[in-house]
Design goal:
The chain has helices at 15-31, 49-55, 61-75, 124-130, 159-167, 185-198, 247-255, 258-261, 264-280, and strands at residues 2-7, 36-38, 78-86, 100-107, 113-118, 141-143, 146-150, 172-176, 201-205, 208-211, 214-217, 221-223, 229-232, 238-243. The protein is an alpha/beta fold. The strands form three sheets. The chain has a six-stranded mixed β-sheet with strand order 5-4-3-2-1-14. A six-stranded mixed β-sheet has the order 6-7-8-9-12-13, with helices on one face.
Length: 282
């Protein structure tokens, strides 16, 4: 299928402006024949964790989701978007209001939600003050013939997260992100490594420009299951396109069967030994 990736600058808490940007990108992507548009982390509301926590009314979130579903329907294109979402009781939400996850959702061209995921690895002090880390593994659904999963930003920097999706059968991993400028090794090296080691397609959509105190470097990428770069963005607003499919995934997994030959029970034993060695050290 043809995948599109939006790299753009959001206006913090200017939802209508951000939705116009998304709508325009969805229109252009659909016109180019894309089946899906991947957008950056928290793009509809802008990336500013503490301001979102203090100024965004959670009662507005269902209406924002409805508008995003309408964008998908109007443009006849599937959409991956990221928003705050209510955390469940397992999160240990406190009386101080730390009751939001950062979430991502995949809706199809009819606006129907197919998949949702909540961020497991929060990055930095502001995210940890504004949100609660989730604990559920990435689920997998079949979309346009590809087994598809979601991660969010910092999650992809942990090999265990991508491997968890691959072990559940994922062939395409869609990653909304908000990566600050200065971390170029993440899109340029790490995303390609994640795609190669778990032998799946990885698409990574970043912000660009300045949003409140954050400066984003762009650099959105799509990597194939052999680590090849299928698309790469610069440092400004851009709409990327890449063809992704199952054939390259199957070929990579047959040539070097990383997933079949991994030994998770042994790795857990190693980790247990490490903990024991640490306890008895000295």
């Amino acid at each position: 299928m043809l995948l599109s990736v939006l790299q753009a600058n959001a206006a913090v808490l200017d939802v209508e402006a951000n939705l116009r940007t998304l709508d325009d990108a969805a229109h252009r992507a659909a016109k180019a024949g894309a089946d899906l548009l991947l957008t950056p982390e928290l793009f509809p509301v802008g990336y500013a964790p503490l301001r979102l926590r203090s100024e965004l009314d959670p009662a507005t979130l269902p209406a924002i989701r409805a508008q995003l579903a309408a964008i998908a329907r109007r443009n006849r294109i599937a959409l991956v978007y990221s928003l705050p979402s209510a955390a469940g009781s397992e999160s240990g939400a406190s009386a101080q209001g730390r009751d939001w996850h950062i979430s991502a959702s995949l809706v199809d061209a009819a606006g129907t939600e197919l998949l949702t995921y909540a961020k497991v690895h929060l990055f930095g002090g502001e995210e940890r003050k504004a949100f609660v880390a989730a604990a559920e593994p990435p689920a997998v659904v079949t979309f346009k013939g590809l087994r598809t999963a979601l991660l969010i930003c910092y999650d992809i920097e942990f090999p265990e997260a991508a491997r968890a999706a691959a072990a559940r059968g994922a062939e395409l991993l869609l990653v909304p992100t908000a990566l600050s400028a200065g971390f170029d090794a993440v899109p340029q090296v790490l995303i390609r490594a994640r795609a190669l080691e778990s032998q799946l397609n990885v698409a990574y959509a970043n912000h660009c420009g300045i949003e409140d105190a954050y400066t984003f470097g762009g650099g959105s990428v799509v990597a194939g299951p052999d680590g090849a770069l299928l698309a790469a963005g610069g440092d400004g607003p851009e709409l990327l396109f890449a063809q992704v499919g199952t054939k390259a995934v199957h070929e990579a997994r047959e040539e070097v069967p990383y997933l079949r030959e991994r030994r998770p029970e042994l790795y857990r034993e190693w980790e247990g030994r490490l903990a024991g060695d640490t306890d008895t050290a000295g």
